[in-house]
Amino acid sequence: MPQTVLITGTRRPYALGFNLVKRYLEHGDRVLASIRRPSEALEKLQLEYPDRLYVLTMDIASTASVNQAAQEAARWTDAVDLIINNATTASADTMKELPDFDLDLIAPAVNVGAVGPIRVLKAFLPLLKKSKMGALVVNISSEAGSIGKCYRTFYLDYGTEKAALNMLTMTMRNYFRNDPNFNIICVHPGWIRTNPDNHEAPLDPYEHAETLRLLFEDRRHDKNGPVFITYEGKPYSW
Ligand SMILES: NC(=O)c1ccc[n+]([C@@H]2O[C@H](COP(=O)([O-])OP(=O)(O)OC[C@H]3O[C@@H](n4cnc5c(N)ncnc54)[C@H](OP(=O)(O)O)[C@@H]3O)[C@@H](O)[C@H]2O)c1
């Protein structure tokens, strides 16, 4: 049965969000692709899928913007079956260590990377509740958000926002525990070649988007399994 999927952070054609959009469209689903500034790649894709792709402008750092986007989405679709919170941020200081890191950059990063996904969940909840197949929210996290396995001396912003996202995911899992039609997980997606200059990362974004799509379908109704998982579906250390 075709589903309606909302994916955030979908502007860049070589990044994960855009390739997830492509994979869901190719699979026959309807997609709300969110961006914060125009995307030529999405505009081209829209010519191919005029009825099944809706491009939504949404700044996940702003509650007003997210609420407005949810109202706009409700004019296009009666329900949302899956949200993939993929958008994230890192500051210019992300690779720096304590002496050189401007600590005032951490809170804005947490606002985007951790609060943003929950803002989206809250605003789109009326549409999620109308899902007939059972709604799933996937928060794209990272191994960098694991406190147990933390080894870095940098990523003060990125690591903190992903750890906070993991905490919010678990708290939402608890909150929706008794709702048989709602599930939420957070996923370390693996090291993906989402930057054209990065040839080291082993995973191709288009190929890997399909691996993730299949994983999310597998976990839709799994309310008793691990909450923080790898792209192979294995539990990851909080
Ligand atoms: N790539 C990897 O190897 C890897 C590894 C572990 C985890 N991850 C996670 O996987 C996800 C995708 O990674 P990626 O490398 O493909 O990321 P990316 O392209 O850098 O994606 C970030 C997207 O988020 C958007 N964004 C930033 N701030 C926003 C805001 N305030 N409101 C709305 N959108 C905003 C950006 O928009 P603009 O395009 O307008 O800047 C961008 O399109 C991320 O959550 C990342 O943390 C990736």
Report the sheet-strand fraction.
5-15%
* SSE succession: EHEHEHEHEHEHE
* Cα separation of the termini: 34 Å
Based on secondary structure, the structural category is alpha/beta
Strand arrangement, largest sheet?
3-2-1-4-5-6-7
The shape, in one word, is globular
CATH fold naming: Rossmann fold
Average of per-residue pLDDT values: 97
Helix content: 25-40%
Going by CATH, what is the homologous superfamily?
Answer: NAD(P)-binding Rossmann-like Domain
Q: Give the tally of β-strands.
A: 7
Query: Major sheet, described briefly?
Result: 7 strands, parallel
Please give the radius of gyration in angstroms. Answer: 17 Å
Q: How many independent structural domains?
A: 1
Could you state the oligomeric state of the chains shown?
A: single chain
Bound molecules: NADP nicotinamide-adenine-dinucleotide phosphate
Low-confidence stretches: none
